[in-house]
Design a protein that fits this description.
Elements: H1 2-6, E1 37-48, E2 54-55, E3 62-64, E4 89-90, H2 101-109, H3 111-114, E5 130-133, H4 134-142, E6 151-158, E7 161-167, H5 170-177, H6 181-197, E8 198-199, E9 212-213, E10 217-226, E11 229-236, E12 239-240, E13 253-260, H7 265-286, E14 290-296, E15 302-309, H8 313-317, H9 326-343, E16 352-357, E17 364-368, H10 378-383
Parallel strand pairs: 3-12, 4-9, 5-7, 5-11, 13-14
Antiparallel strand pairs: 1-2, 1-10, 3-8, 6-7, 6-16, 10-11, 12-13, 14-15, 16-17
Helix pairs in contact: 4-7, 4-9
Ligand 0WD binds at residues 92, 97-99, 133-135, 138, 166, 190, 214, 217, 235-236, 257, 282.
């Protein structure tokens, strides 16, 4: 109004209003020493079957069984990653947005593992600061270096815990619907690689003709801590090392990956800069120590297999021009979680704070009270009451 427009005295604001409502993502702002991150502790697991039904067991955990050559060298098997694409492929319905459904189902069945002691003061039914999918955290970790794809993360504070659930952006939806046949085949090839290397039971070897069904998953549920933030993370695990000397979960898990064969220094730089950033972030978050990668020829044959130790990856890329820094990824995630804690103040399952980010911009947010972005379904509210 006019009166305020003429008032030249600076406004007196109370401390909380000085908190910035946006968060910068420029990587140079997050350089520094690596923040405290505790090796995650597995506290549970679940499986999703071929119809995407939840089971409170390990039925979809597969065993790693890579054929090893005579001198202990990895064989270059020439596996055809397109085998079965036309006839043996069942694809998950990507229109069905599950959000946190399976994690909430697990939480509903395991309340006794997580409730705060009422005698300690505050009683939280889930005594963690954050609950989310590992994949969402991977996106956060990669944000300071991401130049192509933005994200939307919906956050609801419910009984003292922040639940983070990704929403598909308009651009991601468009990209998904306009995938070329080549892109579809590439997606299939990653799953097919798993079929060549994993077995359903210890007695059988891999079934190279098995149907690829992307509804199936084994997920680990873990407790982690990043600086002052306690986390409950769930993530899909590809397979377990079945050897008797293998350590306890998550250290016995192995992540499987495929990538195009590297033929020149340019491709090597791009692999180190983009692929290794994502691979490291994803496996580091769950404490998975080993990544087994199959490199494919343009004809979609596996030409080599390489084993990466997750903890070696930061050393492999260090000192390269335009490289990435794991400390930056973790410092940004730490700051983003603190930012969420300062912004998301209404403890109400009906309120969603939608954080939005596009490359080159800052993280912004909007508040929603309609059911467009619901994070917490009503059955879960009832279960926690
Ligand atoms: O609702 C959503 N927007 C999302 C749901 C986004 C991300 C994941 N999810 C669900 C998926 O249904 C999946 O079952 O979470 C589960 C996996 O959780 P995550 O471990 O947090 O996901 P992420 O780390 O992104 O991916 C792990 C693996 C992938 O392996 P590769 O090596 O390609 O990164 O989970 C698989 C995939 O094998 N995966 C999916 N499978 C079916 N549908 C999906 C998906 N949408 N996304 C990842
Ligand atoms: Ca994988």
């Amino acid at each position: 109004n006019r009166k305020r427009g003429l008032d030249l005295t600076p406004p007196v604001t109370k401390q909380p209003l000085l908190l910035p409502s946006t968060l910068k993502t420029t990587h140079s702002l997050y350089q520094g020493s690596f923040p405290f991150y505790r090796l995650p502790l597995e506290i549970g697991h679940f499986s999703l079957d071929e119809k995407r039904q939840y089971h409170a067991d390990k039925r979809r955990l597969r065993y790693f069984c890579l054929p090893v050559g005579k001198e202990g060298k990895q064989v270059s098997p020439g596996w055809d990653l397109m085998n079965g694409y036309e006839s043996c492929y069942v694809k998950r319905n990507e229109e069905e947005k599950e959000g946190l459904l399976h994690i909430l189902t697990w939480l509903g069945k395991n309340r006794s593992l997580l409730g705060a002691n009422a005698d300690k003061g505050i009683a939280r039914p889930v005594d963690r600061d954050f609950v989310t999918w590992r994949g969402h955290l991977t996106k956060i970790l990669c944000t300071p270096y991401e130049t192509q794809e933005g994200w939307l993360l919906a956050v609801t504070l419910f009984k003292g815990t922040f639940y983070i659930s990704e929403q598909e952006t308009v651009a991601a939806c468009k990209k998904r619907k306009e995938r070329t046949p080549e892109q579809e085949k590439l997606m299939y090839s990653g799953y097919k690689f798993e079929n060549y290397i994993c077995a359903d039971s210890l007695e059988s070897g891999p079934d190279k003709c098995a149907v690829v069904n992307t509804n199936e998953a084994f997920c680990s549920v873990l407790l982690a801590r990043l600086s002052s933030h306690s986390l409950l993370i769930a993530g899909e695990v590809d397979c377990i090392d079945p050897s008797p000397k293998s350590p306890l979960p998550p250290s016995c898990y192995i992540e499987l990956k495929t990538s195009a064969q590297i033929r020149n220094p340019h491709q090597q730089r791009s692999f180190n800069r983009y692929k290794l950033l994502k691979w490291w972030s994803q496996s580091f978050l769950l404490g998975i120590p080993v990544i087994v990668a199959g490199f494919r020829s343009p004809e979609a044959k596996v030409v080599s297999i390489e084993r990466f130790r997750t903890s070696d990856i930061p050393h492999l890329i260090r000192g390269e021009r335009n490289s990435w820094d794991p400390a930056v990824c973790m410092n940004f995630c730490n700051k983003f979680m603190s930012h969420i804690k300062s912004v998301v103040t209404r403890d109400d399952p009906g309120v969603v704070y939608l954080f939005a980010w596009e490359p080159g911009s800052e993280v912004t947010y909007t508040v929603h009270t309609d059911d467009e972005y619901t994070v917490i379904p009503s059955w879960y509210i009832e279960a926690m009451n």
